[in-house]
Amino acid sequence: MVKKNISFIKDCYGCGVCASICPKKIIKLDLNKDGFYEPNLFNEEACIQCGLCLYVCAYNDEKLSVESLQDIKGYAAWSNDEQVRRECTSGGIGFEIGKYLIEQGYKACGVKYNPELNRAEHFVASTIEEYIPSIKSKYLQSYSLSGFTQFNKTNKFFVTGTPCQIDSLRRYIKKLKIEENFVLLDFYCHGVPSMNMWKKYCLSVEKKIGKIRYASWRNKRTRWNKFSSQNNCTEKGNVIPWSDSKTILMCGEKSRDYVSSMSTGDMFFWFFLGDICLNKACYASCKYKQIKSAADIRLGDFWGKKYQNDIKGVNGLLALTNVGKSVVSSLENCTFKREEVSTIVEGQQEVSPKETIFKKYFLKAFASNMPIERIYSLFLVYRLPERLKNKALKVLHLR
Ligand SMILES: Cc1cc2nc3c(=O)[nH]c(=O)nc-3n(C[C@H](O)[C@H](O)[C@H](O)COP(=O)(O)OP(=O)(O)OC[C@H]3O[C@@H](n4cnc5c(N)ncnc54)[C@H](O)[C@@H]3O)c2cc1C
Fold this sequence. Notes:
The chain is of the alpha+beta class. Helices cover 30% and strands 21% of the residues. The chain has helices at 17-21, 52-55, 82-87, 93-103, 128-131, 145-148, 163-175, 195-209, 267-273, 280-283, 322-330, 341-344, 359-367, 372-382, 384-398; strands at 27-31, 37-41, 73-79, 107-114, 119-125, 157-160, 182-187, 212-217, 221-224, 235-239, 247-252, 257-261, 297-301, 315-319, 334-338.
C-alpha cells in the first residue's frame, strides 16, 4: 500500500509544516547527517494515514501553492526611522511591517538567534518589544516548530520565512481555512547552509571568546556595546556601508567582541556564499527564484545598480497579492519608490546554485572531526582556479 505520510521524504526543505499539521503529533524535525532539518516520523504505528503532512509539503509538489501572479507591484523601500534602518539587514521594511501588523492586533512570527542552542528559530511575538529579536537575517536554516506550532484558528498571524517555508505554510492555512487570518512574507533566498558547518564555526570562535552569548550577521557597525540582551542592539563603532556588510559579530561570555567579515576571509560567509554546503533542496529543487513566491510580500536587498551608492540599506520589495498591496499602502514612516520588477530582481539569482561534485566531500568534512580551519584551507585550494582567473582578469583590466 502507498503510504500517505512523509516517511519516504528525504533531503526536503525541512520547513516543518508537516509536523505542525500532524493531528497525532508524531512528526519531529531532526538534523540529518549533513546538518539540515528533516521530518522524522517517530511513531509510524500511530499514523492514521490522513495524508495532511503530504498535502502541505511544498517539496512534494512540483508547482507552487498559488497560481502565477498578475500585476505585481515593485518598490525600492526603507524605513524612515534611522535606528530601525541601521539595525536591520537591508532597509528595515521587514521590521516595519511586523510593527504595523502587531499594532493591528496580529501576532508576529519571525526568527531569532538562540545562543543556548547556537541555532536560529522561529518564535511568536505579541508586542513590538518582543518582536525586536527578529531583526536581521540569521543566515541559517531556522528551526520552525518553535513558532509554527503556536498557530491557531482564532488569532491573526504575520509570518516571515524562507520561500519554501512560506509555500508549505500557504498550503497549511488554505487547508485549515484560515488564510484570511494570515499575512505571509518571504525573501529572496540564497539557500541555507549546513548546521554542521555552523557548529564547527561556533566551536572555533568559542575557543577565542568563550560561550557565544550574541551573534548577528550583516552588521552596519563594527562593534556594539550591549550584548547581554538580544533585545538591545545598540551597536557602536565605525559605519560599514551596507553593500560591504557581509560580517558576523559575536560576543562570548569572556565578553570579548568577535568581528569577522567576508572581505578579510570570514570562513562562514565564504563557505555559505561559495555554495559548497547548502541544503540539497536548495540546489536542484528550489523553485522560488525571482518572482516565484507563495507569499503576500517578498523582500530582499536591492542589489541592482540603482541604489548601489546608498550606504544605509535599501529593500527591494514585491507586493504580490491584494493583501500584500494593502499592507504596503498602510505603512507610514517608510519611503517607497516605484520600480520595475525587472529592476528589483537585478542582482538576484536567476536559477539555483549548481551542485558541484565537491559538495558532498565538504559536507562529509563538516560532519567529521576535521577542524574548520583545515576545511577552509581545502576550500581555498578548491577555489584556486577561480581566484587565478579573477586575478588575471583584474590584471588585464588594469592594463
Ligand atoms: C538564509 C537567508 C538567505 C537570504 N538570501 C538572500 C538573497 O539571496 N538575496 C536577497 O536580496 N536577500 C536575501 N535574504 C534576505 C535579506 O537578508 C533580508 O532579510 C531582507 O532583505 C529583509 O531585510 P530587512 O532589513 O527588511 O529586515 P530584517 O531586519 O533583516 O529582517 C529579517 C527578517 O527575516 C527573518 N529571518 C531572519 N533569519 C531568518 C531565517 N534564517 N529564516 C527565516 N526567516 C528569517 C526575520 O524574522 C525578520 O523578519 C536572505 C535571508 C536569509 C535568512
